Every structure is written in structure tokens, then in C-alpha cells.
Amino acid sequence: xxxxxxxxxxxxxxxxxxxxxxxxxxxxxxxxxxxxxxxxxxxxxxxxxxxxxxxxxxxxxxxxxxxxxxxxxxxxxxxxxxxxxxxxxxxxxxxxxxxxxxxxxxxxxxxxxxxxxxxxxxxxxxxxxxxxxxxxxxxxxxxxxxxxxxxxxxxxxxxxxxxxxxxxxxxxxxxxxxxxxxxxxxxxxxxxxxxxxxxxxxxxxxxxxxxxxxxxxxxxxxxxxxxxxxxxxxxxxxxxxxxxxxxxxxxxxxxxxxxxxxxxxxxxxxxxxxxxxxxxxxxxxxxxxxxxxxxxxxxxxxxxxxxxxxxxxxxxxxxxxxxxxxxxxxxxxxxxxxxxxxxxxxxxxxxxxxxxxxxxxxxxxxxxxxxxxxxxxxxxxxxxxxxxxxxxxxxxxxxxxxxxxxxxxxxxxxxxxxxxxxxxxxxxxxxxxxxxxxxxxxxxxxxxxxxxxxxxxxxxxxxxxxxxxxxxxxxxxxxxxxxxxxxxxxxxxxxxxxxxxxxxxxxxxxxxxxxxxxxxxxxxxxxxxxxxxxxxxxxxxxxxxxxxxxxxxxxxxxxxxxxxxxxxxxxxxxxxxxxxxxxxxxxxxxxxxxxxxxxxxxxxxxxxxxxxxxxxxxxxxxxxxxxxxxxxxxxxxxxxxxxxxxxxxxxxxxxxxxxxxxxxxxxxxxxxxxxxxxxxxxxxxxxxxxxxxxxxxxxxxxxxxxxxxxxxxxxxxxxxxxxxxxxxxxxxxxxxxxxxxxxxxxxxxxxxxxxxxxxxxxxxxxxxxxxxxxxxxxxxxxxxxxxxxxxxxxxxxxxxxxxxxxxxxxxxxxxxxxxxxxxxxxxxxxxxxxxxxxxxxxxxxxxxxxxxxxxxxxxxxxxxxxxxxxxx
Length: 872
Fold this sequence. Notes:
Strand content: 35-45%
Helix content: under 10%
Structural class: mainly beta
Distance between the termini: 38 Å
Radius of gyration: 36 Å
Number of helices: 5
Strand order of the largest sheet: 34-33-32-31-62-61-60-59
């Protein structure tokens, strides 16, 4: 038996299904009669897993229609849903399912886990608990199969040891279920009523779900040979035809008039006309000329045996992905506790995606729901995009918005032109440098990063002039690159010196303009955050619109004996770390050597690793009093310009970072490329523990697109459409993208509506009892036997398909038939020549409100937007 994975909308709900006759649907358009009058009556039949995309599209549309018809608010809770997270302890990406909540009890989900009582050989109180597994995690991966794009979902194991959850039942007294006083008694488990069957023995506990006990008799003065029962949403009549002292022959007739009968031994059961029927006792009396039988009629028979899967039905079909554990015993005659372990039935059913739910496969009264991330990957309102891309062959550009809501589009920050440069540099198209350290020279028309975080500003030195006499006519003026209307003019207090206020912070200015003589013209800024002379802020950041902090990087060669052009000795560095600065001291210890961060840098030790938050820099000795500062990635120095993006403090109290690296070695013929994105989180491993690599996971819809996601929810998408010039888009969330996971009730009391269990394969259709519903048959007769049946049984692949449907290569058909398995229902075929054509048909069906579902209606088309229909 398969698990019931169901695509849902954000309104969680309980199941309500009612039958709709063909006559009722006579004037219907899709989604009727599949969803109508706040109820669903539908099964979606497919034959090939390639058509699951179309199946999902249709089921999602039906879910939305059902949620809309029931007035759902879109909130991810029913009145009884229990969140597996709290505001203070959220469920983070890649953390265990039980990291925030370890179990669910009566107080959390009362309609399902409320205490009950069992009266059998003893009177016992029954308690329930759902224990969440430590192995399942919400991850970003290609799941449940590798043939789809990566997405976010709950990934879990295929072994009982690494269970998804344990559903545990505890009795306050030992119960003997083999005792005659226990047999035939009602046992309520997880909100569902069962009857203990007489087939229970020393190995197995046998239960009938939603069972009704009927006393049937023939020949007595008050004989009742026939009784009517309702199982699910269907009405049946049950008749005693014959009986002996060891068996009874029972006839079952459904609401459409179909009937069948079978002989059933005492303490045994059989499925008759789609429902389970058990005979507890039978009797034939020749003396009184009477027949009698006590009969159990129910939706399902459950067989529970220690150490094995749960089994259902008279044929004991195993429920894959379950395991029964009689705690402390192997014997149903002395039970105080037992557990049903639930895990993945197989490697292609081990993922609960966004908007999906897993209905408990045994009791069916609760579900595990993944409603998505607090900030979903496609949430444009609560995400920002930072685009880093080539600009022509020689330049790199960036587009982003800062925290003041000022934006730049394709601003050129990286120069890879051939010439005197040893490698690509931080500079614009004209070679004007972008300065990323305090007290470095800023040339007129050049740029500088000043301040830090929400006080950070990217400025351009827009004006520098120095009169021949005095300083009264001198001017030093900066312009905000992201807002050209914001300018900052220095207040000059002496020849070559002054201060400038930039967005509330005062910087000390020293300037030189000797362009008429030796050509020197530049400005140096002393930042207010550096407390002492010689202390340098390196790689200042500015805050983006959603709270990230961006820094521009290139290796910095620093003359430690002259950091400001005035022979001031370096006293230390201030590195931004996402939460202010990490300070690293520097001391001139002796000739040609400096002690940096407590280690002497020189000939003997020419490289020192500096830990800055989650980043590592490398201070490298190059010559006397000369130090080069490199950012490293996995211990390797980054030699070319890069972007550093600091995330906000996550739920672990850490400020992680993303490093966007570039390629291009100062050779114009080698086009600029955004070559690699690295996360400091998880040492750049993906959420399955495998190295992400330079650009992450390749998508299936476009093999030139790669993606990687970290625990904060930063999504990096790399486009390799140009073989030597890649581009990247960083999607950054406004808050950490934690998971919204719920356990929700499906029993009465949740006051909600959901689509229900609708997907079924063609080979399981008849045995699943879903053939009696309105059907949507997805995929052609070449891959779906149900489609072949609708088309008369002779249609297959190729020419026979075209002959039966008039749809050839590149075409699709949507056609409605009377349901051949249930004459009062319909069956709509949604299929095409190939999988892509079937997907187009499904898209057309869900996006056009004029698709008739009247029997005999038919439409054909070639795209997802155009079709021609004829009415019956």
C-alpha cells in the first residue's frame, strides 16, 4: 500500500467527500464535478511517473478550488493544527524535525490525541503520543527524485531506526486482546474508532476501522436478514444469505445496485463489493430452522504484529514504511503499550515538499504538513535580489538596493582591462579605483566605501580643487553613488585638511591637489570608527534593503610603516564581521617585522591566518614592512575582486557570510565571469553533506542554471548560459527562512476542508476502491491502461492513439466520458502525444474556466494556452 502524499494550499483542512451524479454535472465546467459545493469527489489516475508534473498541477488547482469554495483564509492552520516550532525556537533549515518540538501530546492536538477508554477484559485508560524523529530534516535538494529542480522539503529515511515519527498507544492496565471479553469491543485510536476482531490471536491484533456490528438472522420470529450501513460516504445493504456453525454467506449491495456475495469463516474476513466484512460468529439451528451471524462491516481491516509492517485488508497488504512494535512483549494478550513507526516507503517517497502533506498511513486521522518557509524562495515581497554579472567583456557590474531604498543598476565595480594592471581590480570602466580601506588615496572621480553596516555609504570623489593661495576657495566634495542628489562637501579647517559629514558620521579629511605641478591629487579619509592613529578599517560594508551587509574585496597591499602618506605606522586593523568589527592589533616589533594578531610576521613566519567572525583572512609578508591582506576560501587566498555578503544573526547567534568570487586575470580577452559562490555556513556543504561546488545544484528545467541555499535562506542562482561569462543572482530574505511544519488533525473538530487522497496509479485503481469516484485520467493510452479503457480498449501508442483521439504528434486532448467503473460518475481524459503535451493539457485545464466536463465534450490543442472544444 502506498502513502497518501497530497498537494495542499495553505489552508489546512479535514476531508469531506460527497458523490455527484453525471446528471448533477451536466452543466458543469472544470473544476466541477471534481470539486463542487464545498466538497471533493475525485481520483487522479496516472500510469507513468513522468506525468506526475501534470498530476500535481491538476491536484493543486483542485486544492485551491476547494479551499476557495470553503472560504479558507489561506492561513496555514486549522483550528486544531499544532506547530512544530515556536517563536523562540524555530525549525531551521537542515536541523532535525524534533529540534524545536520533540513530541505531540493530548494538550497539543486534543481531537486526535485525547485520552480514551477501552472496556474489554479490563477497563483501561488509553493515552496517545506522536514522537518526532531526529533524522528527518528540512533541506534544499533534488527530491524526491533527481529528475526535478532542487526545492525545499522535509527529507526523511527509509528505515524504521530513523523514523519520521512514532505513533504510540499506552494503556494504564495490561489488556488481553485475545480474551473473548475484548473481542467485538470498540477501541478508539488517534481519533478513529476500531472494533477488536475475533481473528485476533497470540501473534496478531486484528482491528476493523469504522466498523459496525450487525446481528443478522433468518427464520426467527423477529428475523433481520438485511441491514443498511454507511461506510465512508457510501450506503450498502448487508444480507445474510446462508450460515453454518462455522461460516456465513454474506451479500453486499452498493448504492448503484451492484452486488456480490462470499462465504466467510468465523474469525475471518473478506472484502465484498469494496468493503471489509468479518464474521465473528455463525450458527445454523435445524431445530428452530434459523440462521444467525454476527458480522463486522468496516472500511479497513488492520493487522498488527510485532516487528512487521502494518497490514490492511483480507489479503494482508503491507503498508510500506510502517513497523509495529509491541513494547515489552510479543503477545497481544498482554499489551500495555505499542508503537507504529512511520518512515519512507522508498527512495522516491522520502520528501514532503512545500505545500505537501503526509497523511498518517495507518490511522488516517492526522497529517504532517510542510507549509513552506517563513520566507519562501519565490517570495518577492520579502526578498531582495543582488545581481552580479559581467558588463561587456572587460567589466563586472552589480545591481542592488541599500537600506535607504537607493538603488544602483549595473554599476561597474570590477575592471579587467588589459594594460598595466597585474590582475582585475576594483575600478570603473575608466580605471578609477574603488578604495576599500581607511586612509588610502582616493583620486578625483574615484570611489570609496565609508562607514559600516547601516551607516555605510558608497561615495565618489566628485570634486577636488586647491587654490593657489590659502584654502578658502578649495573644495572637497563627495557624491553618494546610489543617490546622486546626496552630496557631502568637506568643511576645510586648514590647507590640505578638514572634515566631512557623510550620513551623520564625521570623517577627517586630508587632501592634495598638485595636478599643475607633480600631478598628485587625492583625498584620504580617517574614519570615526578607528580609535587610534594607525588603526585601519578594512573592507567597510553597507546595509542592503533587507538587512544584509555588502563589502567589496580585493587583496590590499599595505605599507605598515606608512599607512597614510604621512609616515604613520600601522597600529591594527578593524575588519567588519556582520556585527560591528573584529579588531586585530598590529605592532612594529623590530626592523622590517610586525606583530599582527599576536604573531610576528616576517621572513620566519610569512603568513598569518586571521579569524574574523566566520571569515578567515591571511596577512602575508611580502617585503620589508609590507603586508598583503587576502580573504581566503577553504584555505586558499582569493586573488581577484569579490563581493562579501554578511547575513544577519541567525537563530544560532552566528553571522554567516557568502563570498561571490570572480575570474579574469587582467587580460581583456579573458571575459569577466562571476565564477564561484561560497557559504561560510556548513563549510559550503549542501544539506546532504556533499560539497556544493562552485555554483551548486544543476536544475533540470535549464541545465545552464545552478542553485545553492544556506541555512539563513540565502539563495544563489548562477547562470552559465554564456560559457565563459557567468552571472549570479543572490536572493536574500528579510528574515531567516525557517520552516513552518505542523501536525494537523483530520478528524471532526478541525472545521476545515482539504482535497483528500486523490492520486492513484492505473494498476492500483480497481483495488483502491477509488474507481467509484469522478476520475481525471492523466497520460495517454500508451502509458495509462485507464486511458485505454476510456478509449474502448484498443488504443495504444502512435497511430492507434491518434485514431482514437484525433490527436497526433505535438497535440493534446481533453475529453470526458462516463466512468466505466461507476456509471453515475464521469472520467475526464487529460493526455497528449508526449509528456510535454500532457503537461500542456493539464495547464490548459487548470487555467481556462470554459472547459466543459459534460460527457461527450472534447477539446484538442497544441499549447498550454490554445485549444478548440466541442460540446456534447
